[in-house]
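agent> Task received from the user: take the single chain below, predict its 3D structure, and emit structure tokens. No templates, no multimer pairing.
agent> Plan: (1) validate residues, (2) run structure prediction, (3) serialize to tokens, (4) report one or two observations.
agent> Step 1 OK, no nonstandard residues flagged.
tool_call: predict_structure(input=
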Amino acid sequence: LDLRGGTMTRIFSVCALLLFPLVSFSHEMGIELKLKETEVQVIVFFEDDTPAQEAKVTLKDESQKVLLTGKTNAKGVWTFATPKSGKYTVHADAGEKHTAKTTLTIPAPK
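)
tool_result: status=success, residues=110
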């Protein structure tokens, strides 16, 4: 084995890549909904509680028709007018496979 000319360094580099592949860890996201009288506040955050800034948020009805889309602000918040009573899906996408979804139920008026 010729160890001159960096052969050993190249062998070590190849072994290191095989033993320690590049791994990309993404963190989980969560969505919190706050239902107020006239609006719904969507709060999107990562598992370490940092806000998911500029996350695309989509509101769909029960038939999965897109009703609204928007983006979260610097605090990870997007607000929209309270829709009529029914069941909806809220989906957030912050890119790089960071997604979350939850169900929003607007009760019928009393």
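agent> Step 4: summary for the user.
Strands lie at 29-35, 39-46, 56-60, 66-71, 77-81, 86-93, 99-106.
agent> Done.
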